[in-house]
């Protein structure tokens, strides 16, 4: 039996946006503004951006909010929350938002592995999960996917939303392969030695998408695409080799599914994350677009290229992790988060990112995934190991 979404007494979908001040969260709030007759924001969380949290809570009259970073739980600005708004502090308070009775749909837009427990809370509380946190499935897909009822988990990543929509009405057993599209990032066509000299500003200049800093760096290294392959493997119950990466520089084809008879279903549209966010809220309906439309007569061209896994070694490392399975993707993700954060703070070079990740993977003895506690322990081990490798890189 397919999952049945609940709605408020006025027919609106009651939404919790976890990570409401990030790129996905702010765009989700914009979708909620545009469709206030269909969507009600009933819970919001931030990591530490309490001023923005208060502003959003006041605008949408939100009944409950949470601040993940306990160091900001007493920020003075929180006194300006609307009267009656319940405030929680800490990671568990964020998860509790997903369990509230006045929440029908949980958008998990938290960055990194921190989103895993929030995703688990949404699924086990029988809420629709609009998943914008790929790390949840990269790290804990073996635990999360068995919990998801058909139609309960709607992916928000533009590529996975595209694949999800290409499969609608189709028999997945008749699929031949998935074509996962990739912009190629700002360094497409560069040689490996050229990447040694790129700066943080260079890497943050994504050619087609406006995203947060961490995912933008992941897009520059192509780690993002490697993580997305692992995510797609869990979402669509297929082997990693079933998922092909193709560079589509214009970012107008968001992904494709090729079927046994040679037919290819492609999802095309504007490079605007509000479209897949809205689809996760509106499914199975389609509402008026929140973004400008494309005039294909003016687009000019659509180009396709192969991804260079020798130059962009993060893509190859993610393939290795995905094929190894078990706890190796957890190590891949944790080490990458440490390395990317270091790069963003001028603590290592761009090409040090994949070296740090590879060192951690080489040092890890893969285990079968059996619990969230195990994943937390391995995540912590990988972060400590990455910090050690980073320190050795600096010396």
Automatic annotation (TrEMBL):
Name the UniProt record assigns to this protein = 1-deoxy-D-xylulose 5-phosphate reductoisomerase
A Pfam family for this UniProt protein?
A: DXPR_C
The catalytic activity of this protein is classed by the Enzyme Commission as 1.1.1.267
Q: Please list the residue ranges annotated as the 1-deoxy-D-xylulose 5-phosphate reductoisomerase C-terminal domain.
A: 153-236
Q: Which cofactors?
A: Mg(2+); Mn(2+)
Task: Show where the DXP reductoisomerase C-terminal domain sits.
Answer: 268-384
The protein's annotated pathway: Isoprenoid biosynthesis; isopentenyl diphosphate biosynthesis via DXP pathway; isopentenyl diphosphate from 1-deoxy-D-xylulose 5-phosphate: step 1/6
Q: Which UniProt keywords apply?
A: Isomerase, Isoprene biosynthesis, Magnesium, Manganese, Metal-binding, NADP, Oxidoreductase
Q: Could you state a single Gene Ontology molecular function term? A: isomerase activity
Give the binding site residues for NADPH.
Answer: 21-24, 133, 135, 212
Query: What biological-process terms (Gene Ontology) are attached?
Result: isopentenyl diphosphate biosynthetic process, methylerythritol 4-phosphate pathway involved in terpenoid biosynthetic process
């Amino acid at each position: 039996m397919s999952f049945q979404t609940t709605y408020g007494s006025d027919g609106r979908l009651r939404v919790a946006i976890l990570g409401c001040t990030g790129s996905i969260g702010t765009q989700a709030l914009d979708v909620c503004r545009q469709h206030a007759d269909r969507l009600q924001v009933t819970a919001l969380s931030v990591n530490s951006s309490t001023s923005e949290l208060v502003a959003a809570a006041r605008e949408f009259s939100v009944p409950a909010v949470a601040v993940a970073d306990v160091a900001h739980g007493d920020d003075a600005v929180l006194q300006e929350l609307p009267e009656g708004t319940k405030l929680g502090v800490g990671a568990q308070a964020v998860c509790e938002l997903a369990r509230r009775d006045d929440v029908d749909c949980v958008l998990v837009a938290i960055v990194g592995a921190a989103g895993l427990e929030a995703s688990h809370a949404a699924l086990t509380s029988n809420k629709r999960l609009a998943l914008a946190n790929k790390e949840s499935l990269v790290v804990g897909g073996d635990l999360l996917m068995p919990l998801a009822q058909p139609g309960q988990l709607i992916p928000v990543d533009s590529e996975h939303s595209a694949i999800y929509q290409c499969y609608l009405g189709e028999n997945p057993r008749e699929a031949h392969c998935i074509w996962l599209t990739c912009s190629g990032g700002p360094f497409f066509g560069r040689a490996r030695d050229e990447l040694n000299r790129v700066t943080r500003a260079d890497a943050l200049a994504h050619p087609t998408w406006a995203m947060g800093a961490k995912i933008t760096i992941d897009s520059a290294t192509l780690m993002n695409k490697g993580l997305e392959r692992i995510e797609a493997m869990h979402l669509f119950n297929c082997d990693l080799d079933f998922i092909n990466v193709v560079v589509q520089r214009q970012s107008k084809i968001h992904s494709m599914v090729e079927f046994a008879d040679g037919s290819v279903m492609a999802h095309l549209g504007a490079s605007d994350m509000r479209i897949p966010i809205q689809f996760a809220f509106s499914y199975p309906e389609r509402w008026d677009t929140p973004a400008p439309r494309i005039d294909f007569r003016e687009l000019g061209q659509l180009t396709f290229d192969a991804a260079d896994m020798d130059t962009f070694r993060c893509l190859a490392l993610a393939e290795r992790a995905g094929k190894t399975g078990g706890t190796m993707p957890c190590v891949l993700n944790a080490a990458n988060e440490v390395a990317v954060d270091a790069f963003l703070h001028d603590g290592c070079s761009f090409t040090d990112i994949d070296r740090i990740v590879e060192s951690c993977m080489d040092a890890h003895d893969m285990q079968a995934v059996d619990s969230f506690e195990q994943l937390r322990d391995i995540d912590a081990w990988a972060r400590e190991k990455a910090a050690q490798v980073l320190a050795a890189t600096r010396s």
